[in-house]
Amino acid sequence: MEAISKGANHAEYCSGYSEDVDIIREREYPFLKGTTYLDHAGTTLYAKSLIDSFAQDLTSNLFGNPHSRSSSSQLSTQRVDDVRLRALRFFNADPEEFDLVFVANATAAIKLVAEAFRDATPQGFWYGYYVDAHTSLVGARELAAKGHKCFGTGDEVEQWISGLSGDQVQHPRLFAYPAQSNMNGRRCPTQWCQRIREESSGSGRAYTLLDAASYVSTAPLDLSDASTAPDFTALSFYKTFGFPDLGALIVRKGAADILAKRKFFGGGTVDMVLTEVSWHAKKATVHDQLEDGTPPFHNIIALDSALSTHERLFGSMSNISSHTRFLAKRLHKRLAAMRHFNGEKVCHFYMPSESNYDDPATQGPIIAFNIRNSSGGWAGKSEVERLANVKKIHIRSGSHCNPGGTATRLGWSAAELRRNYSAGLRCGDDHDVMNGRPTGILRASIGPISNLQDVDAFASFVDEFYVEKARKTFPLPPPVTLVSQQPSFYVESLSVYPIKSCGAFKVPDGQRWEIKREGLAWDREWCLIHQGTGAALSQKKYPRMTLIRPVIDLDRGVLRVSCGSDSKELEISLRREVTNVVTTSLCQSAKSSNVCGDRVVVQAYSSPAVSSFFSNFLGVPCTLARFPPQLSTRYSDPGRFSRAKQKRPMPGSFPDDPFPTPEQTPILLSNESPILVVSHSSVNRLNEQIKYSPRPSHSPPAKAVEADVFRANIIVAEDLHQLANAERPYSEDNWKSFSVGPEQLDFDVLGSCQRCQMVCVNPYTGARREEPFSTLAKTRKINGKIVFGRHASISRTELLHDSNPTKIWTVMVGDAVTPTHDAE
Ligand SMILES: *Cc1c(COP(=O)(O)O)cnc(C)c1O
After folding, report:
1. CA-nearest residue, atom 2 of ligand 1
2. Which residues form the MOSC domain (predicted)?
3. pTM summary value
């Protein structure tokens, strides 16, 4: 298989490129160093010299608004005209036969066509589209007054075409389909356009709209024969060149009349407009009539650089086509060959059976698949994507804006999908598997500068994390004999995270700390919110948050915050003050896995001193916000809530509260549970595994991770004086409950803590690493979830039997911890 070590000796691999793809990459794509980018169907990437030459162009010329008469304006107009012609030629489109309308993106091109059709006749139009369509094509159906139809198979389309000549209707029809599915790379028959034109005529004429946005990224779109070409072709240039963000609608002039019936006009599209009476004269050319307002002329000028650079580096789209085909074939072959120890396939693909990576007429260089374990269970797409992310691999997961394609391939009916929606499924969320079936698809897409190493890195990634080489032995057997010996743990450290996602405040030794039903006092009392979106910031996106270190100073009644090595400190009163606080509604980002979609009212600090303190450090416009007082948690029963409020808080915290309880039932945002417990011996075991796990020779030696990366509230350790050398890593996996301290305060264990890549942020530097997530994924997957540590809360019985409203529960470093175990 390694016969092709470097591409140079294979006919398809970067043949026709100016240089070896690795050399081009090194010089032109410096940002790709150490990265495996396999999301070219999302966008391909721009070359450095494209940007340099564009910058040179802009800084050496004076470009005015193209709609004026000055020489600077005329220069812009000329360049726009030249680039328009050049872009047409790139697609072999004869300017006599075609015009090219610059638009924002492919979606805008589609919308322009759909709106023109809506306006063209009083009765409206009929719309047909192919099931593999991008949402941008699907949406056009909402404008079709004469109805619409989604064609589920190619045969259905063929049948409809055959019936066109006999089916004379009085309204225009529009048939739209993708040249290539962005979801699985499947290519549709090109001859549909010609056949549809031949079979229909007159007032019931059927027009064709080709969505070429995905196709043009790796294949030559050839419009040299106007008689077989689509009437309208929509595309986005960033898909081909990475830059500029610009789209085009290519119009076959023979079909342009219907677009001229579009009602809206604005900016440059008219020659004269009267306002006294309703009269206007449209400009003559197709593009003049359709380009509303000032065209994006800087972007159009950038397209000139893009075309030159692209040609210089890659020669032609055909070269890219064979290069990407070669790599896709290789990746598909490797993934398809993977087997678990029991012979079961690892990857399940979503390309139709007739697709063939050798045949550019049916298949583009996109691989759509999901991963199964040895017993047939599906790996969650979000987990795969997260793990890939940790490995600096960029792929895409989800439904890829291709609702018909994904639903068909995954076998979901409309009714089932609506049920999933009611059950909470949303685009881009973490509901990966519902009713035992995947809701989304993984997509690896190849581009012009993908290389052998990308493909091999991705295949190795799947092999490393998802191919079960041997039957798994269940990793958690706490010997029953040991359990009966009453293993004894103690509280090694207590951490409070006053500001969600920021650094820890360690409770000083010797100080008893109040613990409430919601968790340790002051834990997740505050958060940082984005001033634009209102969403709570997370360390996942802003790893520097870990360097924001809060201190609870009970003596002075303040929260003291410092950032990194800055000497500046911010002090916030622990009292709830009415001044300088505004109430705002916190929008949990839809992607947040824990409290998805919930809205919570928080009190944001409006003082510029507060917001600039955090904004300057993180480089994002944000401010501090405080959760409302004494929120009930999802685990609490409402009856207890009011009594809990009457309790005297711990010395130094403040009973009187100026804020009314908000109307919505809020929830505490301390992630998934009031308290997170981690055992030090488990961290030690994990570190042994990190150190000794085999790794590729080129990677640096693995370093142990700090227990703090797990952001536990309570770290427990075995009392080794009592049981010599008796570390029992992961015995907490079987804890049912535990009691702490001299008063034996009881806690219920609620479940295991599912982990994400946030554990990879080094708590002392804010740098992202690969560990411990990488090793956790291999050693700590239980029921398909990567888990470490246990969620807990003060036990129900403790809460129910506590009749003394003045009682305060406390814990302290050094307290004994006595677990009880689940019966095996
Ligand atoms: C990317 C893509 C689109 C949408 O392109 P925009 O630039 O977002 O408008 C539409 N269809 C297909 C097939 C695509 O790949």
Report:
1. 213
2. 648-820
3. 0.84
